[in-house]
DNA sequence: GGTGGGATGTGGTCTGACCACATGCTAGCG
DNA sequence: CGCTAGCATGTGGTCAGACCACATCCCACC
């Protein structure tokens, strides 16, 4: 009837079931490839293909050698896998840059809203306000790093992307954090490509620095609407500035721009 | 210095570069595995591992046989890959269900806002309003399918998840659509798990049907704030109803429910 | 008791072989 | 001359076996 499952899919499914049932948990080690192969009745190469997939997806980490710490270990770090997926999809024209930017706007607006609201809650609480207050140490530190005048454009933009990712991390939502991590390389890509069309990089980077500080200030003040609008303008502003007219036609050989005869 | 790249990583990188440079585009066929292997100076199994990864990520589709249509073909369909990633991460406890729900709230609120605004724009435009108006045929059709009284809970919830995904598709944002597609199986999972704790499935499903219709109506009326709040209440309401008290302890052996002595 | 080197177990890779399947060509038949 | 059955070919899917590099562990030797 339906397509017979390929051998590596059997392996993948078996591991997934073990995860769902709790037989495998983060920190556990997978059985050796050779053992899995005989246990599931498949060849070792099929086991390896499944493990490779899980590794790229961020589910596990492999290392050679012997003893504890070696072998395939469940880690469940979604960032890497999401990042690879987004990067490759953008490379294969699966994800238009405009959609990446729109998604950024939505996610980051939500992130700063949550952070600002958490700050406000912490302010209105007497006790333990330090523990309720979101931890902005990482983003603030990146703010400082971005002040260095010796930075190249690429270095600055890398720190910029990291700053936005650090905000997402601070919000504590792991799905959003992983998605932002995935978007990150795509973001860096379009930011760098667009930077060449700027009138003055010095002016723009100064503006970006100020906008970052304003966003953090709004979060710490617990002003969610302000944080939301600041982050929206920050992202949309840069994108509009760098990608206004040139939508890169680059379709096929027939990119002459002339109307087709027919 | 840094770790030497593993053979399959070289293959992956080579294909990624071909995608970025435009040497490979959607619809193209990859060279045969054996040819790639000799070209890159690696074994065929390493090529296969890289191809497997790309396949799971939704970058390409493989099929045996000969002639056009066979082989590995670039497709760039992000849904499948995202779905596998999210499903496995949830299975491995990488993504808490609460974060999945929060992310749903953010993304779906944005989706219906955009749809409603597009509707409003279409209303205020004289010409070609039909083409500007978002295409809600697919979600509306699912609404009809969900009316069937013969549906089991699982079937209803599957249609429900599909309805929400169809809304995302209608919004046209491919990144959001792919993310929702990824969230979909996780959503179905928690929805089904929670359904067992409902007082009356008949009542709840009737309410869900009505809420769906109200959301579509608000979109078609171009009322973005209403659509936003309706979809928020719809999702948050069901989640609260089904996951209020029991955070599924199921941690380890000590799931007795008794307070620990200490 | 300390230490160095081999034994062991693991992933990483390659080679070669065979199978299943889809296509395309060709020889043979009507 | 045209059609069709069946073989040739090219592709992915899988397996088995071998070897390497590496990390650890253990034991004999000093």
From TrEMBL, chains A, B:
<keyword id="KW-0804">Transcription</keyword>
<dbReference type="InterPro" id="IPR008920">
    <property type="entry name" value="TF_FadR/GntR_C"/>
</dbReference>
<keyword id="KW-0805">Transcription regulation</keyword>
<dbReference type="GO" id="GO:0003700">
    <property type="term" value="F:DNA-binding transcription factor activity"/>
</dbReference>
<keyword id="KW-0238">DNA-binding</keyword>
<feature type="region of interest" description="Disordered">
    <location>
        <begin position="242"/>
        <end position="262"/>
    </location>
</feature>
<dbReference type="Pfam" id="PF07729">
    <property type="entry name" value="FCD"/>
</dbReference>
<dbReference type="InterPro" id="IPR036388">
    <property type="entry name" value="WH-like_DNA-bd_sf"/>
</dbReference>
<dbReference type="InterPro" id="IPR036390">
    <property type="entry name" value="WH_DNA-bd_sf"/>
</dbReference>
<dbReference type="InterPro" id="IPR000524">
    <property type="entry name" value="Tscrpt_reg_HTH_GntR"/>
</dbReference>
<dbReference type="Pfam" id="PF00392">
    <property type="entry name" value="GntR"/>
</dbReference>
<dbReference type="InterPro" id="IPR011711">
    <property type="entry name" value="GntR_C"/>
</dbReference>
<feature type="domain" description="HTH gntR-type">
    <location>
        <begin position="5"/>
        <end position="77"/>
    </location>
</feature>
<dbReference type="GO" id="GO:0003677">
    <property type="term" value="F:DNA binding"/>
</dbReference>
<protein>
    <submittedName>
        <fullName>FadR family transcriptional regulator</fullName>
    </submittedName>
</protein>
């Amino acid at each position: 009837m339906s397509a017979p499952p390929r051998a590596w899919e059997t392996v993948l499914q078996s591991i997934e079931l073990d995860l769902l049932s709790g037989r495998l948990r983060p920190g556990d080690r997978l059985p050796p490839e050779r053992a899995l192969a005989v246990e599931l009745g498949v060849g070792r190469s099929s086991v390896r293909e499944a493990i490779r997939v899980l590794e790229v997806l961020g589910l596990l980490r492999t290392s050679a050698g012997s003893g504890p710490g070696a072998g395939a270990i469940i880690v469940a770090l979604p960032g890497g896998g999401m990042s690879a997926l987004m990067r490759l999809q953008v490379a294969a024209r699966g994800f238009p840059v405009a959609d990446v930017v729109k998604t950024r706007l939505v996610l980051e607006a939500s992130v700063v809203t949550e952070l600002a609201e958490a700050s406000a809650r912490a302010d209105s609480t007497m006790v333990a306000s330090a523990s309720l207050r979101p931890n902005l140490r990482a983003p603030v530190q990146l703010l400082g790093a971005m002040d260095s005048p010796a930075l190249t454009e690429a270095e600055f933009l890398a720190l910029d992307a990291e700053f936005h990712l650090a905000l997402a991390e601070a919000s504590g939502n792991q799905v959003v954090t992983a998605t932002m991590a995935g978007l990150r390389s795509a973001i860096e890509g379009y930011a760098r490509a667009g930077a060449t069309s700027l009138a003055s990089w010095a002016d723009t980077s100064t503006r970006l620095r100020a906008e970052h500080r304003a966003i953090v200030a709004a979060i710490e003040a617990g002003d969610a609407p302000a944080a939301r609008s600041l982050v929206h303008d920050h992202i949309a502003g840069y994108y509009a500035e760098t990608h206004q007219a040139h939508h890169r036609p680059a379709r096929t050989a027939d990119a002459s721009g002339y109307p087709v005869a027919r």
